[in-house]
Amino acid sequence: xxKELEPLLKTFDCTGYRWxxxxxxxxxxxxxxxxxxxxxxxxxxxxxxxxxxxIEEARAILSEYDHGVIIHFAKKLDRPEDRKDWTKExxxxxxxxxxxxxxxxxxxxxxxxxxxxxxxxxxxxxxxxCKNPVEARPSMEAMVIDVFATVRKFGxxxxxxxSYEREMNRYALLLVD
Length: 177
Prior knowledge:
By secondary structure, this protein is of the alpha+beta class. It has 5 helices and 4 strands; from the N terminus they run H-E-H-H-E-H-E-H-E. The longest helix is centred in the middle third of the chain and has 22 residues, at 82-103.
């Protein structure tokens, strides 16, 4: 599987990646608290909590996969507001990657985004009212994944940024079996 999918990853400009066992992904309660009391997307985006699975369900879902690939994207932006357009473009590309993996016979392929869903300019805030239900995906954080601990565990760089003068390190997770 890995040898078959690596050329596809490169076709989609995913050059920084590492295959992992999803059972080693760090899921933590504090991540949900951070969503609830630190993110203005909570309850306003159809792929963010409380529209996502519970912590226990997230752990169960990850345990059903034997393969995943963490995909790393690094970028320095001139303006903070440019992040939304950049992650929206990457999100669309990554959903196409997930679809290609699925079409190659990996029917369990599922992507966890590198940021909140940005497919629509205005999200209805409820999953049942989502205008792009086929493409909309939750972020790793929405699935209570401690992105910092997880990516560090697999040797990737990540820091809290104190300035937009610094390069961002963003991550997506593609689950594959």
